[in-house]
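Quick one, T. Sequence first:
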Amino acid sequence: MVDINWSTVSETNNDYFTLERSADGNTFGGIDIIKGAGNSSVQIDYYEVDKTPLTGISYYRLKQTDFDGKYTYSKKVPVEINDKVFEIESVYPNPFNNSINVNCTVPGGGNITVAICNSIGQPVYNQQLTAEQGINVFTINAITIPSGLYFLKITDSMGNVKTSTLNKD
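Structure tokens:
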């Protein structure tokens, strides 16, 4: 999904906005129409979601249309959607003893949070790490974690959560 936000500080004869999208930055098509305020002298915040974005780089712009049919365009804004998904690829060794290796794919890179939780959901390990775009391998020092059954929980910068079951000897 792509969240599109914009604001106006005043509007004069504003009938509607057309949210447009393009795969090449040249040929645009309308994907939604958002009613304008008509005439306003206060800030108005608008919000729209593209629930079916294109994979790769696409471009968005707004076409603002007045009641008399005259229109203007906003600047084009590029957005990249990577078709690779956030995923835990492998966790090894499992069962583990002193350390755990976590292999995960992080499409956009950025901060991730790695937590190891006990069987009732309480974290026994929690750390924020910086991931590169693509495949990452992290080694977690687990020497202080007691024997038992655990859940590995990784949260990416977009709030996506992936889990895996762990067992410590």
